[in-house]
Amino acid sequence: MAVCAAIVGKDNSPKYFACTNPDEELNFQYKVLSSLDVVEEKLNAANKGSDMRELYLGILYSLETHKIYGYVTNTKIKFIIVAESTNTALRDNEIRSMFRKLHSLRA
Amino acid sequence: MRSSVSYILSSTTTEPNMSHPDYEQLAHDHAALLVLVRQIGSQLKNKMFNKFYDRISRLNSVNITDSVGQVRNIYIRYVKEHPVENNLWGDFQTHRRLLGLVTFGKYDSQQELNDICRVHEQLKVKYITTLFDSRCILFGPSSDSPTEETTSSDATSSISSSTDAHSIKTTEKDLEKKELYFEENDKEVFTTPSNFKTRALFYSETDPCADLEAHLTDFLNSLFWVLESKRLERSREKLERVSLLLAPFEKKDFVGLDMESRNNKRRCTGRSTKHLGDLCLQAGLITEALTHYHNAAETLKSVNDWLWLGAAYEGLCTATALVLYPNIYRNAPLHRNSSLQEGSPKRSNSITTPILDIVKKEVPNTLPPEEISKKYREAIVHYSKYQNAGIIETEACFKAARISVEQNHPLQAASFLQNVVFINLTLSEQERIQRFETLSDLYMQIGFMRKASFCQRLAATRYVSAQNPTPNWSQCYNLMLQSFRGHKISLDPTEMMSTNVQVGWSTLQIQLLQEIVVAAKRMGHSALATRHMTFLLQTMWPYLSINDQKEFAIQLQSLSAQCEGSPVSLVLDNGTVIPPANLTNIPICAGFNLRNLQPHLRPRKIQVLKQDSGPFLFTPINFGSLERKSAKVQSKMDFFWIENDLCEVTLKLVNPLPFELKVSNMRLLTSGVVFESIPETVVLPSDTPTLVTLNGSPKESGELEVLGYSTHTLGVKSNCRLRYMKGFLPQYTIEVIPTLPTVEVKTSLPESATFSTFQNFENVVTSASLSLYNGESTQCVITIANTSQVPVEMLEVSIQSVLEPSLQDQIFKWSNDDLQKQLPLLPGNSASLTINLYSAANFLASGFNGPELSSGVFGSSHASSIMSASAGPSSLPSRLNSPVHSTMGNSFHGRRNDLNSSFRSSNSGQSSMTTTGCRSPGALTLPQHVASAVVDAQLQLRFSGGSGFQAGYCRSCSIFITLEMIPSMQVTNWDVLPAETYSQFYLVLDVANLTSQEMEVYYTPSKHMLIEGHESCRVPVPVDRCPLSKLTKFYMEQKSGLDDRLDLDKICSEHIANLVDLSWHLMSTDTRGKASLKGITLTPNMLDIVRMSPIQWEVLINDGLIKPQEEVNCVVGECLEIKVGVSNCFEKPLRQLTLSVQFYQDYQNGMQNYQLETRLAFTGTTKIILPPLEPQDKAKHACNVVFFNSGHYKMDIQCSAPECLASTPSVNTTGHIWRFLPAIEVNVN
Questions:
Q1: HSE (CB half, 13 Å, CA atoms) of B272?
Q2: Interchain CB contact of B422 with A (< 8 Å)
Q3: What CATH topology corresponds to A2-106?
Q4: pLDDT digits (tens, 9 = 90+) for B106-133
Q5: I need a labelling partner for B126 at 20 to 30 A (CA). Which of B218, B759, B1101, B1186 fits?
Q6: Residues of chain B with C-beta less than 8 angstroms from the C-beta of A61
Q7: Span B1118-1127, average pLDDT
Q8: Domains and CATH numbers, chain B
Q9: Chain A interface includes B418 (CB < 8 A)
Q10: ipTM of this predicted structure
């Protein structure tokens, strides 16, 4: 299961931030913030190429303890999910569906 | 990227591994010759050394023609430090070997020179295993002339001429020779010690060292040739025979292994080939290098020699990079200035021009660009299998990342960089920090600002971590400051506040700001700590919890106790400017208003051009289009401030903190004209809006801009500019006009208790109130003191009230001339103005002209009919409405009517009027509620002086005067009676004393009468009749209308008013006053009495001239001869006069009996129409009368104008009856 979820606005300002362990929120915030660089870069790259149908960005970062996944809506609202690396059970598809749920909830 | 079989191939380390990573390495460095540049001794200044280092560094590549005439491009890399351990990896990657040494030293004495030489030799020894050649550059005392040039030429020639490795030895010999030679030359000065076997370059301190580059090129040449010889040596070795090359940590692994096995042979070959590739690369033979690398990779792959395979791959990558991107060499040392933002990511440099494709095709074995990173990745994976190769791996990551940057593949670069942090190395803190700094630098280059900031912050925390034996807070601070950018924190709070949207992540921003405050504090720069704390409070205020707000505010207070915050920019040592942070949230300003001056101090235009714009002050028509609606609050004030006057701005402040806040030194921030602001200190209770007034005075005239205010709270001085605050105009502009005087006004009268709601009373400065009995007058002295520094040059006095101007002038009188004489009024002086106040009132009861009285007196039947026509408009003279305050007026008026009616009824029975004054028969039922009238007026003073006067401004203030006019005396009724003398008549007045006191009324100079309070009495006042000269006009035209009659009335009434001088004296209070009969109204009948008759009578009875009041006695049966002479003493002829003689009996009860046919008989006509009488003409008529009975008779002789004969009550009122008055009494015995 994800340990942290964040919604980031178009201008990269935080809109929503939640994590399972509130004490670590600061750490997660740092992680999520840094991952935005990758998101931006991926978006840049995607813009040059074909039109992006795929909202899911895949894994942004894998850290020693955590993996960070990203998802961008057409309006450039970003969803970020942080999952524990040890959680090998978590498949890409599950992450995808998590994002979709998040997206529909948000919408 | 990490190999899953990590560490499996490496033993746990006790071996000396390469523990000094070089994060700055580029792929291109693989091709470079490593030269150590060192500074020896303390004599040489660091700055100078750096200058030379930079100069040398520019010489980073040389072209050398080799033995076969091919031009080789040789790269050189200069370093200042080179740990000797790194040399150990020289077999693995030859570019790690230190090949050259250049030292700089400065000496003043032989001893110092010796020391330098000794250190140089020591360094040579240190790197002896790899060092090819060295140079020592020496700076002697400036007086020395550089002299060492002598042998260089042959040295170089020998080098250039040498074609093989053997020549090196000869060169070395040459060098020794040269040194000997040199010693001989310079013996008398300084000599290098005999064991110093290095070529030295001598310069004086001030020498420009023009040939330094040339010498260095020589030096580099020598390096190259040695290298080339080694390469050749290597290339000639039989591949089967080569010894196994080892990485430092591998030595133990191969102990006891069968080196002759096929596998190991191949391993040897592979490693050797790779090594040769390295050498070729360094020697500028990229093509060969690529071939070697390629072959090596093939070989090594087959024997699973991962480490060296990795190296071969890396070699392949670097060589390819060198071909594809020849330009990414380390750019000239650019000292990054952190205030100069770290620039856009380096993407623009990427060069993927078609030319390169051509190059690529030309060079065999190069990798396609996209393959580079793949191969690098592979290499890194292979490295990662060896724990001891951690440094190599790390460096490879950085190199790969840099190539990715060049290729403009940020994600790739990021992944390489990301890998760096996973590599487990035992590093010193310093190296860890460097690692993070390099990471952040590279992240920055690929535009990953957030990541870069994150690394910077990590580096910063490393500087001061508990493990760090030498915490460096200032480094920590600097890095923290640099990481602001990635967190979207601008150093300028106004910039932060200007965007409404929250861009950065406030939680992290707050965290970072808190950290930097601590760093600044620990660094010992408390001003910065205060500044950052202020910044934190100011910019992050909305995102702080209430508790945090409080906490930070308290922290700020304690920080600022050490160093007060002030609104000036702080400049750091590295040139970074920290802009001021102003606390605009503490306290919050909820309102900012410029106040107009006090009404009495406001400037006014002396000349108002357009005073009255008509009755329509509002127009629904919008002239000038729609702008007016869109225009919001104007920043330009529509009022003025005056130079040197105290001007006010009110602020509404809210203290958001849960404790009491003291804000001191509050001032206004202005621009434009000079403004002196008066500091203000307030203590704000928590969360309660407080109004604060800031004062100041402009010192010049002109335009003043109010920009905001400054505060000093929590130990921080802030300039709160409205421009940067939400919900305010950026500034307020106000016109300051030149200085005007101020005055203080006092009156001699007591102040009124309250002002009425009189309009426009805002500029009232003082007030005066008094009560006067009607007719009383008094004086009021107004003192005007100049309290300013400017003389008063203009002073105008005017009175304003709702009264009619003429009445107003009666009540208030002053001498303007007296006032003007006292001007100019110098500062500190005072002027006085005397106002005469007179309680002017109408002393006549209105509603007079009741027919009863007149008919009662004269009984002429037609009088009433005349009156009925004229009574309407004239009974209520229009003037009566205005004299008093309107609210009072109505009631007063109403009462007066009551009063009048009661009078009338009481008087109706009285028909007899005596010529002497008498008390009225009983106490009059005067109403007790006769109220006083209150007149409110404003005495307006307009004054000006000084430069403001020249500019056409003045001030205006007013004195509010409340005048209570108490009724004193009133004439309730009046009538006229013919007097005993022809030239006079009696004005009979019913005088009522409306006071409760005893009143003495003087009605002629000699006569007076006492009236009890609320009583009335009747007084006769002898008055001269109105002379005809005043009335000429009315007889000129025959047809004169109603207007004329009114005019006549007026003239007569004025005549009376002028002549009758009623004055009263209240006995108890000793107040005196005068009453005027102004406005007295007269009936036509009265008018005839009042006027002088145009007809002069001459009545003879029995030839005896009858005088007025004379009685005629006769007996019954006696014939009286009556001769009447009528002369016209008017200026024009009188026509159609009818003269009639009539007798009647007066019963003294209002009845007159004209039916006397039985009692007397006339001879001759009693009525005759006289011929037209020219002026001064005389007409005569005679008749006789005989009385039959005794008794009192009265003879009425009258002359009437024709119209009067018409018996019908006509509208023509010009008819006149002139009687011979008084009627002659005839006593018949």
A1: 18
A2: yes
A3: Beta-Lactamase (3.30.450)
A4: 888 888 888 888 888 888 888 888 888 8
A5: B218
A6: 418
A7: 84
A8: 27-232 (3.40.50), 339-578 (no CATH), 588-609+630-737 (2.60.40.10), 743-842+935-956 (2.60.40), 851-882+968-1086 (no CATH), 1093-1228 (2.60.40.10)
A9: yes
A10: 0.89
